[in-house]
């Protein structure tokens, strides 16, 4: 089924190239010269996925991402010419789903988009199944109906990916979970897709649950497991 995708990038050649590849994959794509134009269109009609360049005239990609996250959990992919950990962490922290550094392969981006839509479809199927409403471990409680996380009745604000990752760890708290499994189940990515999304999302989660008695322990060379402190 075709999805509606918005792209904002002030580099016309990159914007048009990405649009062509996504349209060839069957999607409906609207492209914008800057983030402000994209945000105006998004406020009038939400799309299924947003692709944002970081450095643009007017509001930058981080600002647009923040504005979108105030009203929607739509998947967001960030594009940037800068390859620095602080940019990557900033994008993930603000709620983007993933991050591409220019130059990048348009086909790799299409694969990433496909993976995100597969993950969303999987979530819909899981939500339609009868499942446990409340997950508890240590002093953290997750309500999967309201998608809220609390520490002794105090709400912990999480981005969509942080929530999905923590929930998956809770559902599998009796074992260690590999990075590859997290990328597949939380992001929908195949093993050949290279991304730091899992590790950086775990870093953000660790800070947000630092006041609880729960730890996300690294299993070196493998992945992560929940541990009660």
Describe it for me?
The structure is a single chain. The protein is α/β, with parallel strands linked by helices and 229 residues long. The protein has a five-stranded parallel beta sheet with strand order 2-1-3-4-5, with helices on both faces. Helix content is 43%, strand content 23%. The protein contains eight helices and twelve strands. Helix 1 (12-24) crosses helix 5. The model has no long low-confidence stretch (mean pLDDT 86). It has helices spanning 12-24, 35-44, 61-69, 85-94, 106-128, 160-171, 179-187, 197-208, and strands spanning 4-8, 28-32, 49-53, 76-80, 98-101, 134-137, 140-143, 148-151, 154-155, 177-178, 214-219, 223-228. Strand 1, helix 1 and strand 2 form a beta-alpha-beta unit. The termini are far apart. The chain is globular and about 50 Å long.
What is the strand and helix layout of this fold?
Elements: E1 4-8, H1 12-24, E2 28-32, H2 35-44, E3 49-53, H3 61-69, E4 76-80, H4 85-94, E5 98-101, H5 106-128, E6 134-137, E7 140-143, E8 148-151, E9 154-155, H6 160-171, E10 177-178, H7 179-187, H8 197-208, E11 214-219, E12 223-228
Parallel strand pairs: 1-2, 1-3, 3-4, 4-5
Antiparallel strand pairs: 6-7, 7-8, 8-9, 10-12, 11-12
Helix and strand content put the structural class at alpha/beta
Unreliable sequence segments? none
The SSE string, one letter per element, is: EHEHEHEHEHEEEEHEHHEE
N-end to C-end Cα span: 46 Å
The percent range for strand residues is 15-25%
Strand order of the largest sheet: 2-1-3-4-5
């Amino acid at each position: 089924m075709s999805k509606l995708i918005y792209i904002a990038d002030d580099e016309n050649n990159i914007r048009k190239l990405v649009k062509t590849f996504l349209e060839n994959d069957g999607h409906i794509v609207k492209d914008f010269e800057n983030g402000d134009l994209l945000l105006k269109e998004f406020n009038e009609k939400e799309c299924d996925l947003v692709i944002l360049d970081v450095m643009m005239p007017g509001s930058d990609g981080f600002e647009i991402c923040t504005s979108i996250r105030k009203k929607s959990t739509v998947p967001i992919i960030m594009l940037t010419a800068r390859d620095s950990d602080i940019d990557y962490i900033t994008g993930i922290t603000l709620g983007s789903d993933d991050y591409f550094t220019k130059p990048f392969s348009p086909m790799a981006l299409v694969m990433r988009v496909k993976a995100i839509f597969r993950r969303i479809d999987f979530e819909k199927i899981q939500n339609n199944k009868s499942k446990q409403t409340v997950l508890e471990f240590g002093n953290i409680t997750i309500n999967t109906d309201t998608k809220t996380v609390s520490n002794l009745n105090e709400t912990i604000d999480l981005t969509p990916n942080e929530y999905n990752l923590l929930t998956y760890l809770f559902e599998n708290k009796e074992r260690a979970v590999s990075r590859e499994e997290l990328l597949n189940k939380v992001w929908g990515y195949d093993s050949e897709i290279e991304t730091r999304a899992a590790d950086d999302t775990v870093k953000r989660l660790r800070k947000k649950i630092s006041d609880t008695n729960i730890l996300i322990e690294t299993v070196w060379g493998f992945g992560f497991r929940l541990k009660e402190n």
